[in-house]
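Annex B. Sample input.
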Amino acid sequence: MQDYEVVTAFLGEWGPFQRFVFFLLSASIVPNGFTGLSIVFLAGIPEHRCRVPPSANLSREWLNASIPRELQGGREGPSRCRRYRLESLANFSALGLQPGRDVDLSQLEQEKCLDGWEYSREIYRSTIVTEWNLVCDDDWKAPLTTSLFFVGVLVGSFISGQLSDKFGRKKVLFATLGVQTCFSFLQVFSSSWEMFSVLFVIVGMGQISNYVAAFVLGTEILGKTVRVIFCTLGVCIFYAMGYMLLPLFAYFIRDWRTLLLALTLPGLLCIPLWWVIPESPRWLISQGRLQEAEIIIRKAAKTNGITAPDVIFNPMELQEMTSQKQQKHTILDLVRTQNIRFVTILSVILWMIISVGYFGLSLDTPNLHGDAYVNCFLSAVIEIPAYIIAWLLLRNLPRRYSMAAALFLGGCVLLFIQLVPPYLHVLSIILVMLGKFGITSSFSMVYVYTAELYPTVVRNMGVGASSMASRLGSILSPYFVYLGGYDRFLPYILMGSLTVLTGVLTLFLPESYGMPLPDTIEQMLLVKGLKYRHTSNSTRVSKDEEESPVILKSTAF
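Annex B, continued. Sample output.
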C-alpha cells in the first residue's frame, strides 16, 4: 500500500481540520497537568504539635511549656511528635511550681502525642494529612500515597497501549478520561486513607492512559511537520498550563475535598469532544476498516475546503499490505548484542534519574522558603521555556551534548543550593527553578534521543522499557522529598549528584543528530569503545524518517 502520508497529502499540513484536532487534543491534556501533581496540596503538611486536652488542668505557664523545643531544619521550634508527660506536668502545676525556675525541663519524661495533634491553618484549612493524622509514626503514609498514584501510572502505561491498539485511540481516550474523572470524584467522599489511596491508584491508571491515547491520536492524525510541534510543544505546554492552574485553584480553595472536587469537574468539559474528535484513520486502516477511514478523510477535506479524489485508499493494496508477515522480536533483543545492551542499560538509568529529579522537585515546592502557592506556580511556569529550549536544541544541535548540558545545569545548581546562606531565600528558590528548568528540558529531549538510538524492529520495546524505568523513578521520587525531614539539603544533594552522574553517562551514548534512523539491530549507531563487526549489506532508511525523528515519540508509550 502507498504511504499513508503520501495518500493524504492533498489535505495539506495546517488547515482548519488540523488546527481543530491540534488544539482540542492539546486541551484534553490540561486536566492531566493539575491531576498529576494535585497531591502537592491534597497532602500538604502544615505545622503541627501535640494536642494538650483541657482535662489536663495545667496552668497557663505549664501549658505553654508542655511541648519540648527541638531543632527543625536548622531552626529551633516546638516538637511535632513529642510532649512532656502530662501527669507530671499536672502535679507540678498543682504544686504551684514554675517551669524553668523550679523544674528543669530537660530532665522531664516525654511521651508521644496521645491525644492527637493541633494543626496550623495558616496555609491549609484541611488536607488528607490533617484528616487522618498522617504525621509522626504515620508520616510514611503521605509519600506512599504519592507513590501509589505513580504505581497506577506504571500499570496504566502497560495496558494503555494494548487497549488503544485493540479498541481504538478515541474509545480509550474518552473511556480513561471517564475513569480519571469518576474515581477522582469518588475520592472526594473517601472515609479513610486506605480508601483514598486505592482510588488514587485507579486515577493514576486513567491519567496516563488518556494522556497516551491523546498523544498517539494526535501523532497519527496530524501531518509530519505539525506532528513535530504537537509532540514537543503542544502536548507539553498544555500540560504545563494545567500544572499552572493547580496552585491557582489551591490558593482559593484551602479544603482538600472541595479542591479535589474543583479539579475533577473540568474533566466533564471533555464529554462534548466525543462528537468532534475523530478516530485515527491509521488505526482504522490497520484494522481493515477502510471505509470508515475514508469517511474521516473526506470530512477533513471538506473542512479544509479541498476536493478529495474519487478513490483515496485502494482495497486491493490494503489486502496485500495486511497479508505481509514481519519478523517478530522479543524483549530479549534489547540485550542481544553488546552495543544494544549498553544503550539499554544507559537509557534505563537516564530515564529513571531524570524522572526522580523532575517529580522530586515538583513535589518539593511546598517545602521551599516563601509562599507554597507561588513556588508551585513558578515550578509550573519554568516548564514552558524549558520545553521551548528543548525543541530548539533538538532542531539545531547534537542530541548528546544538548542532553548532557541540560543535565549538568540541573544537577550542578541543585548541588550549589547547600552553599547558599540561610538568609538568601530568594537565591535558593532561583537555583531550584534553574534545576527544574534543566531537568525538564532533558525530560523533553530524552524521548526523541532514545527513539533515535533504537532500531525500528525494537523501537517500541526499547522506548517502552525506558518509559517503565521512568515510572519507577516517579514512584521513588516522594521518598527523596521525605528525606528532607531529616536534612533539608539531602534531597538536593542526592538528586543533584545523580543528575550530574547521568549527564556524564549521556556522553557515552552515540550521537544520532543528522543520522538516518536504524532499521535493524546491526544498523545501530556504535558506542565508542566497543568493538563491532561491520556488515556491508546494511540498508538505509528513507529521508522522511531521517527528517522527522520526533514522530517516533508516539511509540514511547
